[in-house]
């Protein structure tokens, strides 16, 4: 059987690979990083808090 290489980092996979669809990864971390989107510069998208939305005042509440 041929050697498996991680679809994210390219390292040889020793032991049981982590499978995501038809791709295999050497670790859960590589599988996670491969699933993150990247912009054209290769930077990973960052997770930010949702925008703060101010709700109208409710005169019936104190």
What does this structure look like?
By secondary structure, the protein is low in regular secondary structure. It has a domain at 1-38. The chain has one helix and two strands. A two-stranded antiparallel ribbon has the order 1-2. β1 and β2 (23-25) form a beta hairpin. The longest helix is centred in the middle third of the chain and has 8 residues, at 28-35. The radius of gyration is 21 Å and the shape is rod-shaped.
Q: If you average the pLDDT, what whole number results?
A: 80
Please give the order of strands in the largest beta sheet: 1-2
In angstroms, what is the radius of gyration? 21 Å
Kindly estimate the percentage of residues that lie in beta strands according to DSSP.
5-15%
Measured between the Cα atoms of the first and last residue, the distance is 72 Å
Treating each run of at least 4 consecutive H or I residues as one helix, how many helices? 1
Structural class from helices and strands? little secondary structure
Total beta-strand segments: 2
**H/E element sequence:** EEH
Largest sheet: 2 strands, antiparallel
Shape: rod-shaped
């Amino acid at each position: 059987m041929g050697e498996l290489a991680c679809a994210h980092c390219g390292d040889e996979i020793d032991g049981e690979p982590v499978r995501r669809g038809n791709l295999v990864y050497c670790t859960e971390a590589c599988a996670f990083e491969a699933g993150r989107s990247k912009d054209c510069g290769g930077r990973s998208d960052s997770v930010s808090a949702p925008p703060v939305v101010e709700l109208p005042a409710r005169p019936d509440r104190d």
